[in-house]
Amino acid sequence: MAVNARNGLLKLTSRWNNEAVINPKEILILNLMPTKEATEWQFLQRLRETQIDCTVTFLYPATHRFRHTSSKIIKQHYVCLDQIRQRCFDGLIITGAPVECLPFEAVDYWDEFKQIVEWAHDHVKSIIYECWAAQAGLWNDFGLSKQKMSHKLFGVYQGTASCDSALLKDLNTIKIPQSRHTKIELPKQLPAGLKILAANQTIDPLIYQADEGHSIYITGHPEYSADTLDNEYRRDQQKGMAIQPPKNYYVDQNHQDIDYSWRQPGIQLYRNWLNGLAG
């Protein structure tokens, strides 16, 4: 089984090897992270670990002003919506983005985000929104607003399945890395058509679902590599920022060894999603 990249920076630099595949799932990833190459690798690797053949196309918002990556390189090695508007895909993943403290309408590609989501409802079997994208999707689809927290939610948190769902097959519990400053403001009663799939007693829900699985909102990052939170923690320390060690992450108090506890649940989550794209 293999996962191939149709485009992207890893393909450009020959750091991802494509292999022969038969009838792969066609997955589109809207990569909104500033760490473009690391994010490409995380998703390609996690999808490969599902043992399901996939071909991945990386998408970028044409209206975004890039600060961390050359816009010329992105335009050459990613696709924009106009280039794929007539195509259909099995699945779409929309990544997180470091814009969570901005009002949604202040994000420079907000209108394009909404256009991509509207297009995807007719051209994609299922959408996974992650982290900021989950909050953006819940705001766009259901009008659920976000709230800034008093401190950063940072670490690995466990959710318990709150209802039967094919997405959580063989996952009574699931662990998902979190790294965010905002959370969803939940009303007393969820909007019609939206349900919680995985909940945690101390933080807001980890996974929501709507439209019978067409829209999946994951408040964290199941794709994260073992060292992603560690790199973020040490980066913020070097910047002199007030940052606590990520919770439920390090094995020891010296913050050297990492408990990669979300890897297998993350693989199973994406495997279940891919299997649900059949037909």
TrEMBL record:
Organism: Limosilactobacillus allomucosae
GO terms for MF: homoserine O-succinyltransferase activity
Localization, UniProt: Cytoplasm
EC assignment: 2.3.1.31
Function per UniProt: Transfers an acetyl group from acetyl-CoA to L-homoserine, forming acetyl-L-homoserine.
One Pfam family here: HTS
Site (Important for acyl-CoA specificity): 100
Feature type site, description Important for substrate specificity: 179
Key words, A-Z: Acyltransferase, Amino-acid biosynthesis, Cytoplasm, Methionine biosynthesis, Transferase
Gene: metAA
Protein's UniProt name: Homoserine O-acetyltransferase
Pathway given in the UniProt record: Amino-acid biosynthesis; L-methionine biosynthesis via de novo pathway; O-acetyl-L-homoserine from L-homoserine: step 1/1
Catalysis performed (reactions): L-homoserine + acetyl-CoA = O-acetyl-L-homoserine + CoA
